[in-house]
Amino acid sequence: MKDFIIPDRDFGTPAAKSKQMVTLNIDGFDITVPEGTSIMRAAAEIGISVPKLCATDSIDAFGSCRLCLVEIEGRNGTPASCTTPVAPGIKVHTQTGKLKTLRRGVMELYISDHPLDCLTCSANGDCELQDMAGAVGLRDVRYEAIDTHFRAKDTSGIANPNYIPRDDSSPYFSYDPQKCIVCSRCVRACEEVQGTFALTIEGRGFDSRVSFGAKTDTALSSDCVSCGACVQACPTATLQEKSVIDIGTPERSVITTCAYCGVGCSFKAEMRGDELVRMTPYKHGKANRGHSCVKGRFAYGYASHKDRILNPMIRDSINDPWQEVSWPEAMEFAANRMKGIIAKHGKKSVGVITSSRCTNEETYLVQKLTRAVFQNNNTDTCARVCHSPTGYGLGQTLGTSAGTQDFDSVEETDVVIVIGANPASGHPVFASRLKKRLRKGAKLIVVDPRRTEMVDSPHIRAAHHLALTPGTNVAVVTALAHVIVTEKLYDEAFIRDRCDWDEFQDYADFVSQPQNSPEAVELLTGVKASEMRAAARLFATGGNGSIYYGLGVTEHSQGSTTVIGIANLAMMTGNVGRPGVGVNPLRGQNNVQGSCDMGSFPHELPGYRHVKGPEVRAIYENLWGVTIDPEPGLRIPNMLDAAVEGTFKGLYCQGEDILQSDPDTKHVSAGLAAMECVIVHDLFLNETANYAHVFFPGSSFLEKDGTFTNAERRINMVRKVMAPKQGYADWEVTQLFANAMGADWGYTHPSQIMEEIAMTTPSFAGVTYEKIETMGSVQWPCNDKAPEGTPLMHVDGFVRGKGKFINTEYVATDEKTGPRFPLLLTTGRILSQYNVGAQTRRTDNVMWHDQDVLEIHPHDAENRGIKEGDWVRLASRAGETTLRATITDKVNPGVVYTTFHHPDTQANVITTDYSDWATNCPEYKVTAVQISPSNGPSEWQEGYNAFATLSRRIAAAE
C-alpha cells in the first residue's frame, strides 16, 4: 500500500521521535511505528485516511473536531485517532457502521452553520471541509439554520449579532469569519510554528470565533507578522490568500527555493497556467520544515512588476537616455567597449562583481568570465560588505569558511548566544525555530546595542542582554572568555584532544590579563560586569551551547577579530562537533554562502583555495585553456579607488546595487562615474545603473534552473517555474557576453556547469543534480568521504587539523565620537524589507515600512527638540541625509539606528570608508553622527534624485 502514498500528503499529526518501535494492526494491516505515534498517523503510513478537520501534521494534535473517531478492540468508546497514541498489539478499526454514522452526524453539525456557496467559494476544490463532507458521505442536512454566523441578517431582516464582517486589512490574505469552523488550527499554527501568538479563540461555545487579539484589532493592526502559517493551516476559505481569490485555485506546482535571506526556505510555487497563484512552504524543505515568512510567502510580486526592464539597453554616456536594442546589439556594444578598454589600459583594468542573489552556476560563470576571458582576478561579491570576516575568522580557527551546524541543530541546544543579529527580522523562519526551543526551556544571551524582539517579546525573554556600545564586540567576547578561563569553566579534555594545548595556554594567559576582565571593560562596553560574568557562566555550564551571529559582528573594523573570538568561545567550552552547539553565521542574502563557495573573492578560486597555489591554478588552466594570474585581484573598495585614480575602467556587475549597499556613497558614485564601461545585469534600473552604459535585463528566481547554498551549507534546487520574461536565464546572458568577448562556452543547461564545479572543487565533488533531486538537498562537503553531504562540521576533528586559538586584542575604531558628532549610528534590517529593497519595495510589503526612519532614544530626542515623526538631519564626517525620526527606548542613549532599504534616504552616504583590518568589510555599524531638526530632504538628496530621474530616461522606440 505504501507505493500509493503521495509524498506530500498530510499525516495528521507530527512524526514521533522515539527509537522504540511499536507494532499494531489497523483494519487488518500490521504496521510498526515509533512509540508515541498517533493512530491517525500510523494509519496514514499504510495509506489509510481517517477523516479529520482539526488535525494537520505541522502542529500538535488537538482532538476537537471529533471527526477522526476510531474503534479499538477491547476498549470502550470511540477515541479520537489524532490524540490516541499507538500501543503494542492493539487492533484498530477506522471504518465501521457506527463510526460512519457518528462522523456523518458530526459533519452535519459543522455544515449547519456554514454557508453552502461552494460553487462560488474561492476555496472550491481546495477545501478540507468540502473534502471531508464527501469522505463521510454527507448528502443532506437535517437541521434548519436559524442562529448562524454566516448571515448578516436573520430571516426577518434584523441584523444578526453573530455575524462578523470579513477582514481584508492584510494586503495578502482575507479573514472571513462566516466560514470559520473554530478548529483552532490557525491559532495553534501561530503559537507552535510561528511563535507570535497573534491569534486567539474569543468567546465560548456557539459564540467562539478566531480573533486577532482585541476587538478593535484587524489582521493588519494586530501582532500578526504575515508569515502565512495560519493561512496554510486553515482547512476552509476562512483564511485565504487574496491571490487565490483573484486568480483561482492552482492546478500544478513546482518545488523551488526562496530568493530572499540565507535560511533558504523550500517552497511549492503553485501555478495556474503560466501564472503564479501562491508560494506555499514545502513541508519537506529541510531548512524551513514547512514554515515561511512574509517575504518568501507573499512578496514575490516584484517578478512581474511594471518596473522590470525586459529589453537590453545601451548608451554612450551616462548623461544620455537609454536606447533599447536587441540582445546581439547589446552584446556587440558591451564587448567592443570592454575589448577597447583592455587594449588601451591593460587586462587588469576591468573586473566583475558577482551576485549573492543569483545561482551558484551563474556566479561560477561570472568569476570564470574575469579569470578565463578578462584574464585577471578582479572579482568580488557582496560578501565583501557583509560576511567576509566570517570567511577569514572561521577559516583561521576552524579551517573552513562556513557555519558548523544545520538548522535542525537548534532543537537540541540548551544555551544560545545571539550576537550582532536579530533573527526575528533578518531570518524569521530560523527565529521561529529558535523561539520554539526557548519556550521549551533553553536559555538565551543576546549581545546587541538594541533591545530587539529577541531580548523581550511575548512568550520569550533573554536570560541576559549585553547591551554593548557599538564597536566594542571584541572587548565583550574577550571578557566572556576571561571569566571562563579564570574560573576554569573551560573543557580541558576537549581542548587537549581537539586543539593545540600550547596555543590555548598562550590564549589563556592573554585573556586572563586584568585589562580583559568584565570590570575593566565595563566603562568601555557599557555592559555591567556582573551581567557579563553571569552570561559567561551560563554559556560555559548550561549544557549544549550554540552561537549565532550576524552583520553586527562582521561589519566592524575588528569584524574578523570578533569572529575569531566567537570561535575561541566555542572551542574552549567544547561546543563544536555535535548537535545543539557550534558557530553559526546567519547569512544575509539567499546565496551569499554560494557566491563565496564559487570563487567570487579576488584571492580565492572555487572552494576557498588561494590563487597563489600552482596546483590549484593548474586544474582550471588545463580545463579552461588559459593562464591564471597567481596574484589576487582587486576587492570592490580597491576597484573604486583605482577607478578614481584612473586605472580601473570597466565593470560587469551582476545582481548587486553597490551604489546603495556599499559604504561612503559619494566615493562609490565617484568611482562608477570615472569608469568607461559599466555593465549592470539586473531586474530593475537600480541606483548603480544610474552610472551604467549597458543594461542586461536579468531573470528572477522563478525563471531559471540552478542551485542556491544557504547559511547551513545546504545546496537547494532552484527550478524554473515560468519562462524568462526577457528571453534568457542569467547564466545564458553571461555566456552570451563571454562568447561575444571571444570565448567559446557551450553550456546548454546549468547541470553542466555544476558538473564542472564538482570536477574542480573538492567540497562539491559529489554534488550532482540527480543527487539533489533524490535527497531533496545536500550539504557540502559532499565527496567520497561524505557521499551524502555533511550536516555537522568538525565532528571527529577540525578541517584544519587542530583548532587554533588566536589572541583577540581590542583595538578601538578610528571612527570616534566628539563634540561635533556625539552619537553612534548603527544600521540593520526590518522584517518586511530585504537588503536594499529592490524586490520588497515593489510589493505590498511597503505597507509596513514605506520609508527608512531613525530610531532615537527619548533622552537624545528631548535634548535636540525632536518629536515623533519629525524630519531630522543625520550628519557624519562622510555626508548627510534627512529622514523621519521615531522615538524609542529600543536604543540606548547615545545610539541611533536606521535601516537602508530605501534609496530616497541613501543611508550609506553617512557611513565612512573604515573597514575590517583583514577583509575590508565596511564598518557600517559604527558611525559618529549628529542629529538635528530639519525641514525635509537635504540638498544632496534632492540633487541625487534629480540625477537619478535624468539617468533613467528611456528613449522612445523609433
Short description:
Residues 171-202, 215-244 form the 4Fe-4S ferredoxin-type domain. The chain is of the alpha/beta class. The protein is 29% helix and 16% strand.
Label this structure with key terms.
disordered N terminus, globular, N-terminal domain of TfIIb, Ubiquitin-like (UB roll), single chain, seven-stranded mixed β-sheet, Rossmann fold, 36 strands, six-stranded mixed β-barrel, alpha/beta, 958 residues, 29 helices
Question: What do these coordinates show?
Answer:
With 958 residues, this protein is α/β, with parallel strands linked by helices. The chain folds into 5 domains: 21-135, Ubiquitin-like (UB roll), CATH 3.10.20.740; 173-304, ADC-like domains (N-terminal domain of TfIIb), CATH 2.20.25; 313-385 and 591-779, Rossmann fold; 388-585, 3-Layer(aba) Sandwich (Dimethylsulfoxide Reductase, domain 2), CATH 3.40.228; 823-951, Beta Barrel (Barwin-like endoglucanases). It has 29 helices and 36 strands. It has a 7-stranded mixed beta sheet with strand order 13-12-27-26-25-14-15. The chain has a 6-stranded mixed beta barrel with strand order 31-35-32-34-33-36. Strands 20-17-16-21-22 form a 5-stranded parallel beta sheet. A hairpin with an 8-residue loop joins strand 9 and strand 10. The chain is globular, with a radius of gyration of 29 Å. The model is unreliable at 1-6 (pLDDT under 50).
